[in-house]
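Supplementary Methods, section 5.1.

A reviewer requested that the exact input to the structure prediction be made available. We therefore reproduce it here, unchanged from the version used in the analyses.
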Amino acid sequence: MTRESAAWLDAASPLVAFVGTTPNIGTSSAAFAAACRIAEESGSSVGFLCLNLKSAKTHRYLGIDEPSVTLDSLRPELATQALHPEKLLRSMHRCRRHSDLHVLFGNMLRDQAEFFAMEEIGHLLDVAAQVFDVVVADVGAYWDNAATLCALRRATMRIVVTTSALSHFQEDGQRWVKQLAPLYGIPADSFQGLVIQTPWGKGGFHVRDICNELGVPLLGEHALTEPMLAQLDSGTLEEWLADNERGKKAMLGPAKAISEASGLKRKRKLVMQPWYKKLLTHRGGVGS
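The structure derived from this sequence is encoded token-by-token as follows.
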């Protein structure tokens, strides 16, 4: 654990950071599905930050082709350390099917990715921690920018996402997690592994062997199925996660582990007793 994450853990809401070993393997969909499950299971307010500076796509997955407010539009407030909690909340998309989940859409100006400063991202994370019970950050798979490095250094839980392809978990994973991360003060063994199962092949490697190669414990698996890919293209990911029987199970196990590790209590479900049902019926459905 870095000094930043230790201080963050003492003073603020948990920050869960998802980072991919390789672009376009399902990191963003896994991170968003986890955020939905956390909101459902815990009843906590969840802030989802798309910090993928070079390939932000969450807005499209949610059917919003031209979002009115994105990360880059907050640059003036971030640069001057003047972003207020109310402004951040107004700038975020409130999910229709998961009302406790708010999403900040990512950077639309990809040519400006290199110009984000660590202080700007740090300020954003500070403010988000004031607003939400838990913050989930999707930093994508590009490590050479302030958003990735700042979020990973601050994170109380780091999740590295990969697939069973040898070039992904061995080549990319080794280069990023084992070689680069320690150079920036991020312990290589502080990550947990999430293995994406793709519809185009398993690669022949067992998930535990993959995590052993990376030197991280296994958090869980996430199936990137053809039906799920169709939802990404149609912009109906949230609806699929909320209504589809297979969608309801996506990232359920990993999200439960994240909630437990982050100290989030399971939401209590109110069970109506038979006598109360009869009383409501007698009153015409009106409670006290």
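The chain has one domain: 3-282. These observations are discussed further in the main text.
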